[in-house]
Amino acid sequence: MFQYIIRRLLQTIPVIIGVTIIVFLLMHLIPGDAAQVIVGEGVPQEQVDQIRENLGLNEPIPVQYFNYIGGLLQGDLGDSIRSSRPITDEIFTSRFWITMELAVYSTILAVFLGLTAGIISAVKRNSAADVGIMIIALFGLSMPNFWLGLILIQYFAVDLGWFRPSGWGTWSQNVLPVITLGTGGAAIIARMTRSSMLEVIGQDYIRTARAKGVRERVVIYRHALKNAMIPVITVIGLEFGGFLGGAVLTETVFAVNGMGRYVIDSIRARDFPVVQGTVLVLSLMFVFVNLLVDISYRYFNKRIDLN
Amino acid sequence: MTLVNKTAVLEIRDLRTSYFTEGGEVKAVDGISLNVPKGKTLGIVGESGSGKSIMALSILRLIFNPGRIVAGELLYNGADLLKKSEKQMRSIRGNNISMIFQEPMTSLNPVYTVGEQIAEVYQIHENMNKKQAMSKAVDMLRLVGIPSPEKRVHQYPFELSGGMRQRIMIAIALACNPDVLIADEPTTALDVTIQAQILELIKDLQQKLHMSVIIITHDLGVVAETCDDVAVMYCGKVVEYADVRTLFTAPKHPYTVGLLNSLPRHDVDKEELEAIKGSVPSPFELPEGCRFAPRCPHAAKICFEQLPELNKLEDRSQVRCWIYTDKWGQQPEVNRTP
Amino acid sequence: MNEILPETRGTSFAPSTNRHGRWRSFYNRLSKNKAALVGGYLVVLCVITAIIGPYLTQYDPAKVDYSIRLLKPSAEHWFGTDHNGRDIFTRIIHGMPLTLSVGFFSVLVGAVFGIILGVFSGYYGGKWDAVIMRVVDVMLAFPGILLALAIVSVLGKSLVMVVIAVGIFSVPTFARIVRGSTLAVRKLEYIDAMRALGASDRRIIFKHILPNISSPIIVQATLRIAIAILTASGLSFLGLGAQPPTPEWGAMLNDGRNYMQEHPHIALIPGIAIVVVVLAFNLFGDGLRDALDPKANK
């Protein structure tokens, strides 16, 4: 197990390097003169040159990359062009934590709803409950979450006044964004849980359990669920990543001041260093979560050989 | 002669189990009556698709949608299992009547240790706490001949070989000292050398625990070694039912004869083994008369028209074939279609 | 679903399908799946709407007329009008070909590059495999729509860039699936036999590998169109995709945001349109998977 963790850690290093390369290259994918694009038209040439100089765009590209990495290793993501403040400060003062909260709560909601619905569906296979759950899940999967967010705001916040329509922090602010973001993931987890459960229920060892005289309820929860969870764990990890990305839309709809909204505002303001920084931080977060998921997967799945 | 033994621990009467599929009703078990005498071994022989495994699962009422036990009686110590509640049935499964399966590789739950899986039986049926149950599990492992059981009890199935796993399955099945053990192809998936060990183990434990065994197999070698009585199944029906000596020395039904002829034997010098021609008919297109008629070397006109009854013969064996009836007189043999 | 008689595995009760052709049995399975049929019909309906719909509408999707702005749905304007007095029904119909094209072409981009990478990786293995799979890992490290978002942010805001960005976003998924299937096919003995007989790699790949792995690709492509449409509409909603006055549904939804209180239909209707199209592809994709690939039920 320890060896596996070390090996898995080593495997993430090239991925992290790759992510930094892509994020770094974003600035160079900008068509034309990046500095010009950033400051916009009709600005004195000296100002453009100044920006170019500040961003180090005059250096050869490999040198720029190593400077970038050097900065990263010291926790320096560069400065925001708009505020001139270090991006690290801008992100980690509150925005990062807000987005993490949003993603974590959404994951909890999605796992809770998805597992419950998926198990009911599998156990009551082909019943009205199963069909109903699967239809709802299909809609959950097919719905743009920003649209769902708008509807929830209008109905539950504006019309009924149960929740506040925007912001983050209090309970009445958090509920709607979490539902908005978590629904799609819940649908995916429900479908995955159902098909995984159905597959497990058809296995020989389930028949063995029944032949032992185990109660049906125990067959499902003790013998089937633990096996069925193994593939679902991976999906939960991927959904967490989906939530980090989906936060962009949800935060925009609910005016939540997190990483997602920050990246959108920065794109609109052509504040590219901030775009780079936020994308990098969110991706590294995702890589880290996937690492945790893989390790716990290994822990749960005793069948995988230990080499 | 055990066929009429009055001390049957389990009596199967006219058992019928069907599967209701889009293609129509499939009568997997089609009116089967058998006796399982106390302390003896009944063999059930047939090709895959003969319904023998479904019959075994029917005894424990482990038939699920789209299958259903349609009719019959399963008298266990005189009481009909089909009339019991699901709760009563659960207290019988794994306790009074146990079962082991063909695939030891997949029949154990991969996420629990073998000890936990044996212990569960004690926790269910004997109200033991986990600690007591685990120490009983160690005893059980020792009984089924697993070396260093104190260590093995904490291992997961993937750490054990197929033969070991089948021993674990036997330990689970025999934990509560059942009256009847149903063994569904217990050695089919194992290496030849291991097969003999497992059969030996079952026979040995049968003696020790005084239980009856139903062995389901397609392998007549297994039957010869272990069984007292034998029922040969074909397409959901018993075609021949005899004690083991009679079956091997004086087989009656052409299907049984065919099965025996396809076996390699050391006592008769034969150049070639004869396989039975053709294949088992689709359950959706069963022949009208005798179900074996299309493959039978002796089939006559009547065989294609009417299904024969299971008739008792003088040597007390039972056979479902027109040849052994009064009607078999001037029946002309029918030409085989190639 | 497909597994009949789960308790009788190993017996021969399942009716034999051998005598039907491969496509016949595929069609049989598909036509038994009602959800898949509904999805299939919906997809066809969407395509027909996209092709002939724009010729049948009586209004101009871009014509601004403030005298009729913010009208509720009526016989005149089935879905009402928006804040610029444009007929929403007309705009939805004109948005259909946009939506389908974005979905189709972005998946085409993703599939083509994904297949090339996946086949290369799976067929040649070794160093190629290691490098390609690391690249795929890196692409998958960007959570959700973030990679597409970043690409659009630098390339510029337009629907074409959205197609490219969403296409790139689909590449790693295709590459992984194709690699897995290629590996499975490559292991088959007859591929070795072909090589022993001197068949060229190109011939083996095009004649034997690709046809054999087409099922999972088709299934994935169908499901991926649904995801692509959702992603693209999200980008347009954020103002990074289609620019006004293009009748793109995500952009229309964004227009309607400010009128949710009094005129919710402006935002609701494009949302419903997105749900219908995405649902159609999801249903159809699920059905195709069950019919083409009964065992892979994931």
From TrEMBL, chain A:
It is found in: Cell membrane. It is a multi-pass membrane protein. Keywords: Cell membrane, Membrane, Transmembrane, Transmembrane helix, Transport. Belongs to the binding-protein-dependent transport system permease family. The keyword Ligase does not apply. GO terms for cellular component: plasma membrane. SUPFAM superfamilies: MetI-like. GO terms for biological process: transmembrane transport. The chain crosses the membrane at residues 12-30, 102-123, 135-158, 170-190, 230-254, 274-293. CDD domains: TM_PBP2 (cd06261). The gene is oppB. InterPro entries: BPD_transp_1_N, MetI-like, MetI-like_sf. This is Glutathione ABC transporter permease.
Automatic annotation (TrEMBL), chain C:
GO terms for cellular component: plasma membrane. Its main location: membrane. CDD domains: TM_PBP2 (cd06261). Keywords: Cell membrane, Membrane, Transmembrane, Transmembrane helix, Transport. GO terms for biological process: transmembrane transport. Signal peptide: none annotated. It is a multi-pass membrane protein. Residues 96-285 form the ABC transmembrane type-1 domain. The keyword Coiled coil does not apply. It is found in: Cell membrane. The chain crosses the membrane at residues 35-56, 104-124, 131-152, 158-178, 221-243, 263-285. SUPFAM superfamilies: MetI-like (SSF161098). Belongs to the binding-protein-dependent transport system permease family. OppBC subfamily. NCBIfam families: Opp2C. This is Peptide ABC transporter substrate-binding protein. It comes from Paenibacillus abyssi.
